[in-house]
Structure formats: structure tokens, C-alpha cells
Amino acid sequence: MKTILVTGGLGFIGSNFIRLLLNDFSDYKVINLDTVTYAGNPKNLTEIETDSRYLFVHGDIGNRDLIDDLLKREKPDFIVNFAAESHVDRSITGPAAFIETNIVGTFTMLESFRAYCTAGHKCRFLQVSTDEVYGSLGTEGYFFETTPYSPNSPYAASKASADHLVRAYHHTYKLDTLITNCSNNYGPYQFPEKLIPLMISNALEGRDLPVYGDGKNIRDWLYVEDHCRALELVMRAAKTNETYNIGGHNEMENIELVKLLCRSLDRRLGPLPDGRARETLITFVGDRQGHDQRYAIDAEKIKNDLGWEPQTDLVKGMEMTIDWYLDNQEWLNQVRDGSYQKYYQEMYDKR
Question: Tens digits of per-residue pLDDT, 234-243?
Fold first, then answer.
């Protein structure tokens, strides 16, 4: 049985990854290290809390003593680093936390990882990153693994910095490291500051659906389970020091995505109480500072090297995602607590 240390495993992608490992594979033990921030929800993994192959550790990736002790005690075969501040809007209003977690935290993890390997342990480090490190595209073209980094937000810059550290630790210290850069994820358990769950939660309540600028910004959407299957494959089968782009082949303008969501909810639930379609709730708000126009991933390398392709098109994935939020409205209501309401007012009500 292989032991995997997952950092940030109570977050959106991390919790889906852990659930996949324990539900679909029998030969993994998972150690979940999470500091339990606003987006790290223990309820994301309620169903596997009692699994004998799962251990939760409450702690910060910036705590060197804790990481050293954890590696020495649990002797992981793999480290998968999800732990990060990840919301671009929050990085614009408060970048310090992104520097501390995404750069300093990753550095601390790498130092512990280096000491662990120097002591004779064999281990692999997978850095889970984002396509935002590449910057913004025009109307054509794609991000490749060889695309130069050109981050445009504090979030993207912090993730780019972390990626550079991971790459440097391989070349300098000959450590077994990997990097993946994914497109926009969506699916179950996503915190409702992100576009799709935000629109679902507001549409259910008949609230305004705030769309930045003219809504023409384009993203490539990747269903979270497809992403997690790619990560497991890269972790297990990729050659050392490889970088893989993981995309969903689902490009769409933000405004069209919101309209798709509205039409789906209208079919399921009927119109709003006053008879209006939910598209009438769409409200254009002041654009995000430095808003990137388009992201698009070329994922041919992972297809050719490892045989992975996304299995979920956007329409199907949206239907499954909406189903999950409709079936889990108690979870949705619990995560939108007082701090979330304050954040929402600052982000949207004042625009």
C-alpha cells in the first residue's frame, strides 16, 4: 500500500482527489494535511472520515517542524500539494496571504521534502498548479507546457513562483518532482466564491447574478473528477520532472456559461416566483482589475504520454454539478456564513 500526503485536502479539488483515491483504489493510504481556512471544509470528506486508510492532520504547510515530523512518522511515497490560496479576487484585495501560503508554504514543503529524501527515503512531489501562470490569450492559440510564464494577478504570480521553486529543486537537488497546470475546475464541493457555484446559489434564491465586465472572458472548463483522475495518473506513472497541462476542451464565454446554467435551472425548477426566467437576474458589474481575456489548454502531451483525456463535456458536467448543489443545499447554506456574506458585499454589492 502506497502512502500519499495530500496538502489542502479539505478544499474543493483536494477533497475530490482524496475521495477518488479511497473510493476507486484499494492500494492507497491518505494523510490529509489542512489548516482549515474558510474554503477548507471538514464536511467535504464526512463520508470517508472513518476509513482506516485515511488520517486527517490539522496543520499549516508553513510549519516546518510539523511537516518534518509528519514525513518522518508517516513515510509517504507521494506528496501532492494542493494547499493554496486560490481566488483571484481575494488576491487583488489581500495579496499577502497568497505570498505566504503559495510561495513560502511551498518553499517550506520543499525543504522538508528535500531533507526527507536526503535521509534516504524515496518520495515524489506533485505540485498542482494552474493555467493562469501563462497569462492571457487572444482569440486564437493555446497554452502549451512550453508557453513562457506571464502571470497577471497576485494569485497567478504566487503560483508561478511556486512552480519555479519546484522546478529548481529538481534541477538543483535532483528531487523527484512533477508539475501540473489545469484549466478552470468545476463540480461538487466548490466554494461559492467561484463562478459556477456562485451563480447556482444566487439563482436558487432569485438574487442578482453578477457578471464581470461584458461577460466575454473565455475559460476552458474541466470537470473536477476528470482532473483528479489525471492527477492520480501523473502522480503514479509520469517520468520525473515532467510538466503536464490538464484541460477540459470546453471553452465558453462566461456570459454564455451563466445563461446555460439559468436555462438548466428553469427546466428543473420552473421560472422564478414572479414568472421571470433566471436569465433576467444577470447583472453586469465593474470588471475585475487585470482581468485575463482567455485561457485555453492544449492537453495533447498528457494524452500522448499517459493516455488521459477528459471524459465529461461541459453540458453533461454542468447537469451533474447542478444536481449535486440541488441535492446538497444544506452544505451550500452552511458554507455561506457571516464571513462569506461580508466578502460578497465587498466584491459585488459595492460595484
Answer: 999 999 999 9
